[in-house]
Structure formats: structure tokens, C-alpha cells
Amino acid sequence: MALKNINPTKTNAWQKLTDHFNEVENINIKDLYKDANRKADFSLELNDLLVDFSKNRITQETINLLVELANEVDLKDAVEKQFNGEVINVTEGREVLHTALRSNSEDPVLVEGKNVKPQIQTALRKIRSFSNKVISGKWKGYTGKSITDVVNIGIGGSDLGPDMIVESLQYYKNQLTTHFVSNIDGDHVSEIIKNLNPETTLFVIVSKTFTTQETITNAETIKNWFLKSATIFDIPKHFVAVSTNLEAVDNFGIDKANVFPMWNWVGGRFSLWSAVGLSISLSVGFDNYRALLDGAEEMDLHYRNTDFDKNIPVILALLSIWYNNFYGAETEAVLPYTQYLKKLPDYLQQAIMESNGKGVDRNGDKINYQTGTIVWGSTGTNMQHAFMQLVHQGTKLIPCDFIGYKESLYGLTDHHKKLMANYYGQMEALAFGKSKEEVHLELKFSGDEDKIATLLPFKVFEGNRPSNSILFDKLTPHSLGKLVALYEHKIYTQGILWNIYSYDQFGVELGKELAKKLLNKQ
Ligand code: F6P
């Protein structure tokens, strides 16, 4: 059965939320914090994860009404349909089963009547055995040397996910050096190959369709570069592919034994959990890769089985809708306080904006309410010296997700204390600001009384700017999997509430078609 088709703005809950918004629009987080239980009442825990959403412009009534909205559009039904493998990607006629890829349960998941779990297990075994061979040095290149470098050739979901995870898990990396080639810009591939030794490099071509212009062009360029020193008979030792298009892979010259499967029921931007994540497993070893999957599964089970008012991805999705659709916020910032997660905002841009950037509802009608948030961000503390001025004192409302870790990986506690002081300091500054009275006193006591008249308005922080604290114990493959799955479920939840299809991406096609036409004219 298809997903339900309910215009959220026509629900009773939406009407109640509109009335409620008119009442609470000007509430102040500072006032809400007069309640001693505020933090405890608006925090959720999931083992090593603590999400504190107390610094939002919400009351318990706001949460109750947002949950009512989720119930009225039957989010529960949509969640079950996704996990059960129903064709919820209706416009492309596909199931959406990235959750099955990380499931440890024996329960079958059926696609066209066939359980997909055995295929997933076979693929995982293949990833493990191949990764072990390459990492241990048993896999030899065409001159008998072990592999030292791995190059992932892909774009979009076939690049951003693996690249972000490999970067984030640098601490857990082995001796292999991993590179990512994505852009059609020939300077990108040239920069990557210029220092590589063809004898010791393994190329992983990742393309679900194996027709993507960027990936195939880069793969051909690299193959030609490789063949300057080797022969076509050496290709099997240096080129492997991840794809659904076996014929095109075969035509490229890749050995059938070196093809890792992809499935139509896994969307590109949700595919790092499949063999698309091969470069992750090569980079940090299969056990760490499995831990990443297990972390995601922990979030899956929480999402599927927890009441909405205690459900972390659902609460974050509802808050986002509250700001997007009621306060008119257009963007959201993702601010990880660890340099390891510097690629997370880029990754989330595809996941969120390719999924929910839709202007037509599940009925095919043009939508007259806001969907799809614009997401952006960078790591703390660097961004405090870059764009945070606008977030603190600008005219725009920008809800922020602060992502932090209680422990650092190398244990430089002095650095970590300072990092986390900034993490909490930023959220406090955003929420509570600095009043005229405070600025007045500050200037007075610092001996700048004469400057009060000229400086005071510029030094005031209005505050009342919302943020969430997403705090893990430590950055591990497991906690990273959990974090990524959290955002995936937030995306789907919002898509359901907005009555759109989150899993297609027709909006990327027209530009591609026109580029092809222009190319043919040249
Ligand atoms: O940008 C559009 C898109 O289809 C993405 O959804 C996908 O991740 C990317 O292109 C790459 O596609 P493929 O894996 O088929 O090369």
C-alpha cells in the first residue's frame, strides 16, 4: 500500500499549531529556562548519546501539538512501510531499504517476494574478504607489490558518504592512503593521480548506474593513465566496481569477480551502508565498518520503536518543521565541534536537500507551504571566527545543531576542555544573549562609561536563538553510524510530514540533459 497523501496544512493539528504559534511566537528561551526542570524535560538519551533540545522556542504544548501532527499524517504507518520494504519511492517504483543493510536481525525483508537479507550478507562477506586481502598486503598489484593507495571514483552519493566517513574516522585508519575523485574538472583527477604509483594503487569505481558522466569520464582517464604503464590484462588487479549495471562494468573491462553489488532499493545518497562503502572498509578495516553499521542499526531500532515524543530523529524533524513552517526560518546550521567531521555538512547537503527539495506533493500538486531546509555549516571553533557573527547578531533566524563529544581521541584534555567550553558557550550566547542592562554595566565597570551612548546597541545580543546539543561520549565508528542514521530518519520524517516523496531526485536531471545537448553541439 502506498504512502498516505495528507496535506499537513489541512490537518487539525496544523490549525492548532498555527493558533499556538500566534500565542507563543515571542516566547523567550531565557524565560522558559526559569523552570528548573527545563533541561531534563527537554533532553533525550540513547546510551552514549544525549540530545538536549531545551534551548528552543518551544513549550511542552508545542511538542504535544507537533506530535499530534505526526500522528495525524500517520508517520508511524510511513515508518513501518519503509522498514518493511514497501514501494515508498513511488515515482521511481522502488523500495527504500538502507535500514536492511545494517540490520543484524534474522527477520526477512521482502522485495518482490524475495528476502534480501541473504544477498546483503553475501555482499558483506565479500567486502570483508576483499578488505582483509588488500589491507594485509596479500592482494598484489601487477608487479607483485602490495596496495598502498585506494582511489574512490564516484560522485554524489557514490562519493560524499564514503569520503565523509573516511575523513571522520581518520583516527581509526590503517596504512592505506585513500583518495576521492569526483568532479568532472580534469584538474581534480590530475591532482590525485600525479603522485600515484599505478603498481600499488587500487581504483574503486562506484556508480549505481555506471552511466554518470563525471564518474565514467574520470574512470576512463584513470584507465588510460594506468595503461601507459600496464596492460589490459592487469586491470583486474587494480580496478574494482560497485554498481547495478553489470553490462557496463563488463564493457569497461572489470573482472566479474571484482564487482560488488548495488541494488535499486538503496538510494544513492543513502548507500554508504552498502558496497558503496567499500573504501570505508578498506580504509578502517571491516570490523570498524561493521561497527558503523551497528551504530546506525541502534538508531534504526530507536526510530522504529520509540514513541514520537521520546524519539530523537522525530523530535529533531518536528523542531525543524516548527522553525521552517511557522517561524519562516530558511536555513539550518550543522556545527560539529570536532575537526574530524568537517565534511559532514557537505554530506548532509546532498542527503537533506536532494531528498526534501521538492515543490510538488504526493498528489502531484504544487505545494503552497515551505519544504526542504537549506543546510550548511562548518566545524567549531573555526566557524566562530567566520560566520557566527551573523548567527548571533544578524537579522535571520538560524536554528543550529551543535554536535560534540565528551572525550577527545588523543586525550589532549586542555584542548578538549577549551573546545567544549566553546561548544556550550556558543549555545548559551545564542539562547540567552546579553541584554542592554548587562552591556551597560559592563561598559560602566570597565571604565568605558563615556562610550555607553555610542556603543551600547552594537554590543547587545538579543539571544533567543535556538540550538540543539547532540552530544556523544566519543567519536567512534559506532557513534558515527548512529549520528548519520539520526539525520537520515530526520529527513524521511520531514518528507512524510510535508507530504512529499523524499527518495527521488528528478531535479538533478534537466541540467544533466542540457549539458549533454550542449556537448553534442560542440
Ligand atoms: O546527483 C544525482 C545522483 O543520481 C545522486 O543521487 C547519486 O548519488 C549520484 O547522482 C551518482 O549516481 P551514480 O551512483 O549512478 O553514479
Automatic annotation (TrEMBL):
Give the source lineage, highest ranks first: Bacteria, Pseudomonadati, Bacteroidota, Flavobacteriia, Flavobacteriales
Instruction: State what protein this is by name.
Output: Glucose-6-phosphate isomerase
Keyword annotations for this protein, in alphabetical order, are: Cytoplasm, Gluconeogenesis, Glycolysis, Isomerase
Pfam families registered for this protein in UniProt: PGI (PF00342)
Cytoplasm listed as a keyword? yes
Which reaction is catalysed here?
alpha-D-glucose 6-phosphate = beta-D-fructose 6-phosphate
Q: Which family does it belong to?
A: Belongs to the GPI family.
Superkingdom assignment: Bacteria
